[in-house]
Design brief:
- The protein is built from 5 helices and no strands.
- By secondary structure, the protein is mainly alpha-helical.
- α1 runs parallel beside α2 and α2 crosses α3.
Length: about 100
């Protein structure tokens, strides 16, 4: 995702008072924003019970939503992706590999 989109989302989060403490929180906020939009986020933040801070996880609970696994997991690093591609290339080019024709 382009850096400018991250900055725009971070600015939106700041404007709404959402606490973005790390990359995962930004991914969570991005997902919430895409699923429910600004108005629903604003409402949920205003309705957070007991002085809870506006962390994305608290907002999701208020909205009765669960983050998908791909949002919670750290995306692979470029080095990890390269390692995975190397393993796939090796498997494809393995001598004696059966192919379908």
């Amino acid at each position: 995702m382009p850096e400018s989109v991250h900055l725009d989302l971070a600015a939106q989060a700041e404007q709404l008072g959402v606490a973005i403490s790390n990359a995962r929180a930004l991914r969570e906020f991005r997902w919430l924003w895409s699923v429910v939009g600004k108005d629903a986020l604003s409402t949920a933040i205003a309705e957070l019970p007991g002085g809870r801070k506006a962390f994305p996880a608290n907002i999701a609970k208020q909205l009765k939503l669960r983050f998908p696994d791909q949002v919670l997991q750290e995306p692979p690093t470029p080095e990890e992706l390269e390692r995975r591609f190397d393993a796939l290339r090796a498997a494809i080019n393995r001598p004696g590999r059966k192919t379908t024709s």
